[in-house]
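Thread: quick sanity check before group meeting

JM: Hey all, I'm pulling together slides for Thursday and realized we never actually wrote out the predicted structure for the chain we discussed last week. Dropping the sequence here so it's in one place. If anyone has concerns about the input, flag it before I start.
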Amino acid sequence: MELRHLEHFVAVAEEQHFTHAAERLRVAQSGVSASVRALERELGAELFIRTTRRVGLTDAGRALLVEARRTLACAAAAREAVAAVQGLMGGTLSVGTEQCMGTVDAGALLASFHALHPQVEVHMEQAGSGRLLEQVRRGELDLAFVVHDDIHDGVRLRRIAEEPLMLLCRADHPLAGVGGPVPAARLAGEVFVDLHPDWGARRAADLAFAEAGVTRKVALQVNDVYTLLDLVSRGLGAAVVPRPVTLKEQARGLSAVPLEGPVRWKVGVAVPAAGQPTAAARALLATIAHRDGD
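JM (edit): ok, ran it. Output follows.
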């Protein structure tokens, strides 16, 4: 039984789809299928119930999944133990980050890390915080920089920064230039531009309005902050964003007003709750702690 076969099996079990598992692993789908067939032959049992749309685990597959995850974790720990004895840090580091966080410069952090540990192969994925937290929970990422609330099952969070939410609008908007915080109730009829629901900033804005008991209309949903700022500047709607977004060069000329309420935009680094971070992940976390102390 090869570790590669177990890795492919776990990916299919978690994705519930051979094609998606192959994309995640960056291998050909035929290779993933061959690995699963090899396991089934060796164990003398079918591991998946296959349909045209998805695959599900059989009882044998569910039993194997627990042990496969444990075996892969032990193999990773063994590799790290040998590297530590040799005084080397090798292997890979998989990092996730949400776009344009403002408080975290993932590129600069990874550049510093690479300069110190050039033998570590670094991978980075950019996505919404909801997806990143799920990938950390499942062990697909060693760590991720995310926007979060306080509790997420399966991950541990270390706080990095916390910022207020702001209403961002054109200078000719009725609320532009208002000095004090704006209550959500005053925005009930407003048309909004926002990011997709998986983004941390969108989740924080939705929570702020939900806690105020206000229903808001999001007319335009986009995948990046710069498009959002462009649409606001063209008068297609207002936006609720964390304060760092209002400081971007592209936001110059727009008016930013604090949003009233207790909800804050919280940025942290997430690691899996189970087990210890890898040696590479611990080194990157130490780099973050050192910068925070500067």
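AS: nice. The radius of gyration is 23 Å. The chain is about 40% helix and 20% strand.
JM: adding both to the slides.
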